């Protein structure tokens, strides 16, 4: 994907948008007066209002509407938890250091950059047209030295292309081989680099005054939710399925972040952990409501075939055909789409992409990303992963906490199994202080071993069992001490570890992508983005004449009390200029206060997108605004029922 | 303050309340299945809903109502910023380590604990009654060894009491002296302790892959706001005064936190930085609206006299009499009170306490705390500090960024001053490469020095100026090179660094204190806490009869769409039990679904506080609930206009 065209045919110009967003303080680099820190951004008033509106909508759409259990867990997380979850070992990128300049490169990005530059040089040397990939270009901090038009052997081109296609799959030693084999160096200085080393992406700190409790800032909100599973299940009166949800900051110590709001070191996430019985096909009771919703799907198979062609399909059909694994996963994909469309996302720039097997996080069993198309390419904004029983299982095994569901069986289950009886009375005197250790080792024997040992015991009258740490590591038990028999056990309660379906939203990415979609689809397009507009109404007095002030003030106070965010702009700029400034801030409606208003308390209400106006009494205008902001009526509805106003052109 | 009595005469029993709050998952220790970490708590669903409601109300009451500029800045903060702000040096507590056990004590708390125990022992020995201070008791993790009834000299008693009265004022070396002088040891083992060392309370980390950017988790949201001052002033079109506001987590690596939600290592803050012209008495344009509001004030002078007697006074009078310094500070004290009362705080348990001079943070010029009375004593929940121009000045000096306001003067200011003219043409050849350094040193001369040098120059024809790093550190300048004259300069623009008034809210502390107030004031008291109740309505079908289910479901969905949070409880417990369970969760209203409902679609609406019920049609009941939840009507209003229902007793 090279250039993105909008519905209105405009070419997306990121420079223009980003400069506007910074100028209007949607966001701004953090600590800029101290030189800034890459990957850290602050949100200013319009950005904050947008974030708040997105979070608000998310909470209504998911937490309230689906009765999820919201929790707020700490970001500080002790080492042991993230060691158990696998993050200490696996949440890492490979980096290479230039020993001369001290520069640090993310190894996979470096290989990509250098090989692509060489392929580009090869194409130039062959006289072929070079297509610029904006997404890749945007990732480069500094331009490498000018591409050299050097022709490569056909075999080398093929090797490079194969390497690039698999770039996400290499581990450190493999990256090291590639770097050596293709003589990859610092692109700016041509200096040699040290071999790749793993760099953990979690921010480390120390909890408390002694240094014996290392900890991290969480890389996701999920772990806190999992650790509370048992309490949440209790809170839900043991009823399954249910979901917990959490909104909060997470952290990722990127090696060299770029690409603005899309790759940052501190970010707001909204995550749902939906706990479901792994048996019975992971059905969802409200799937019926979703089944006819059509999604653009990009499956794993299509990607393997080298294509990025999406298929339009109802989620019902996608599940019938086995493309999407189960109803619960499908239900959430559809709900995610509804949420994104409510925000104002352009449906033509939304797709669901299935993860490749080697691309998934270490905990995931399956995963679909909701991706939004932007000038940076297709950006993962929501992940929807089936984390299976991975997390609950590892935490259960580590702590012994019963992170399981226990439910009465409709029909008792009969299980044939090899059972062990120990004669505890004789056991103590025989093994003294080791008695418990030996008993525990015996209890832990597998069914297979028990079957074999039962036979040995019958044939030889005694058996040998491995017991770590007791005498030579082997302990002899005879028929007086132990009995092993096949019996039937009746289980009335079923115990299982739920699987977790996890829709996980990157709020900053959604915000940025939606801004791109809304910004480039204004003219002639249906009103979008009203839901999340930071300020809903601009109050514009015709001039700064004293008689307008009490009216502006009264409108402002009345709307504040109605919960409609508004601003008065009584600066001396022309009305047209004031509207233009607020159009940039995304303010969808404007009220003009003029001399007629002073006389008869009527006001003009202006719609940003159509620039049409209506005129009515104060009460009618306020009621219309409430109705528009709450989504009960559209501008078209208002225009039909209130008299149009054309007397005064403000644009 | 020993025991807290509620309005209803009940004695506050913290054990009962805290156990209920944990059982109902208002909050819970984080990582409990891993053994927990002191000072870290997670909020469960009702706690989260309460926090969200408080934040919501805060945003409406302050940000929206007063048109503040909300920002969201990163928590990760580079070292240099917090070095400049003074936190690296001064945001620390003193701690003593027991070299044998490895235990770490906060030095001031330790001195307090030991001396108080000795004073108690002395009283016992003298046969006096010992009054237990619950606040102090609650701070102790383990009980020290049994108090010994040892009588002390009268002089020693006096010394101990004086030391305790000043305990907040001692620095490390002073604490060391006290510990040595009074032979203070580990209270449990009697072992000797190492001398106190400063422990910085910020969590340290490292930003990026190299270790050359140390950073901290912010101890307050304020610094991020200050660093954006210039951009915010631009956003506000250079108009003063204005306020920025921020809601977010901050961190404090407490030495040994206890006291539940009141002293935690990660906490939600809501902070306002109101920027005001230091000249003109810091007036506030909306002060008139607040002036008649009465506050309970505990002044510095009263505290110095050893009393804790508050004075009731309107904020207008408090400013007239000079007790509260200025209108802006007073305006915010009144607004803070209005906010806390809206939340449901008991007005009898709210006071404003002025900080003692030695108690204020390193940046504060004056400070009043809104304190709420709880079973832990009077707890600081909101600080309202005048930070003067401290922060903006230090950041300006460090970075050179113009964190100032520039405004045209109504009347140009004429300033008589000694001005220096240098003959730059001759200057270069004379000093060669040092020319600029010498010129800069001359420009930097103070008015006093200039006056003296002007006289020298006239009398001797030459002067000597200190210039560091040039020749011997002194440079001679004659009349050919320099002229110094008294002239009048006209200044049309005034430049000043604003002062900052900072209301700073600890949301967790407010939550806990409000819960105590609401929990113990239910019977016979006006309805309080409805505003922040996590769930507003409980839907209770009479039984789990199938005919009730569609009705419950319809009510639930309708209310969700109306934004009224509700839950259905169709468990098999009796109606009375189900209501009791939800009374604990603070659910203020209940709807009963019964056989009559199935017939005629009427429902019973129950008020938790009065346990009275009304009955009406579905639409009427839903409309009444909306009105109650949005605060448009009280239960009394509803009771007057809808028919009472007494047919069915549910309690």
TrEMBL record, chains A, B:
<comment type="subunit">
    <text>Homodimer.</text>
</comment>
<keyword id="KW-0648">Protein biosynthesis</keyword>
<dbReference type="InterPro" id="IPR002314">
    <property type="entry name" value="aa-tRNA-synt_IIb"/>
</dbReference>
<comment type="similarity">
    <text>Belongs to the class-II aminoacyl-tRNA synthetase family.</text>
</comment>
<dbReference type="InterPro" id="IPR004154">
    <property type="entry name" value="Anticodon-bd"/>
</dbReference>
<dbReference type="Pfam" id="PF00587">
    <property type="entry name" value="tRNA-synt_2b"/>
</dbReference>
<comment type="function">
    <text>Catalyzes the ATP-dependent ligation of glycine to the 3'-end of its cognate tRNA, via the formation of an aminoacyl-adenylate intermediate (Gly-AMP). Also produces diadenosine tetraphosphate (Ap4A), a universal pleiotropic signaling molecule needed for cell regulation pathways, by direct condensation of 2 ATPs. Thereby, may play a special role in Ap4A homeostasis.</text>
</comment>
<dbReference type="InterPro" id="IPR002315">
    <property type="entry name" value="tRNA-synt_gly"/>
</dbReference>
<dbReference type="Pfam" id="PF03129">
    <property type="entry name" value="HGTP_anticodon"/>
</dbReference>
<keyword id="KW-0963">Cytoplasm</keyword>
<dbReference type="GO" id="GO:0016740">
    <property type="term" value="F:transferase activity"/>
</dbReference>
<keyword id="KW-0030">Aminoacyl-tRNA synthetase</keyword>
<dbReference type="GO" id="GO:0070150">
    <property type="term" value="P:mitochondrial glycyl-tRNA aminoacylation"/>
</dbReference>
<keyword id="KW-0067">ATP-binding</keyword>
<dbReference type="InterPro" id="IPR006195">
    <property type="entry name" value="aa-tRNA-synth_II"/>
</dbReference>
<dbReference type="InterPro" id="IPR036621">
    <property type="entry name" value="Anticodon-bd_dom_sf"/>
</dbReference>
<dbReference type="GO" id="GO:0004820">
    <property type="term" value="F:glycine-tRNA ligase activity"/>
</dbReference>
<keyword id="KW-0436">Ligase</keyword>
<dbReference type="GO" id="GO:0005524">
    <property type="term" value="F:ATP binding"/>
</dbReference>
<dbReference type="GO" id="GO:0005739">
    <property type="term" value="C:mitochondrion"/>
</dbReference>
<dbReference type="InterPro" id="IPR045864">
    <property type="entry name" value="aa-tRNA-synth_II/BPL/LPL"/>
</dbReference>
<dbReference type="InterPro" id="IPR027031">
    <property type="entry name" value="Gly-tRNA_synthase/POLG2"/>
</dbReference>
<feature type="domain" description="Aminoacyl-transfer RNA synthetases class-II family profile">
    <location>
        <begin position="151"/>
        <end position="541"/>
    </location>
</feature>
<keyword id="KW-0547">Nucleotide-binding</keyword>
<keyword id="KW-0808">Transferase</keyword>
<protein>
    <recommendedName>
        <fullName>glycine--tRNA ligase</fullName>
        <ecNumber>6.1.1.14</ecNumber>
    </recommendedName>
</protein>
<dbReference type="InterPro" id="IPR033731">
    <property type="entry name" value="GlyRS-like_core"/>
</dbReference>
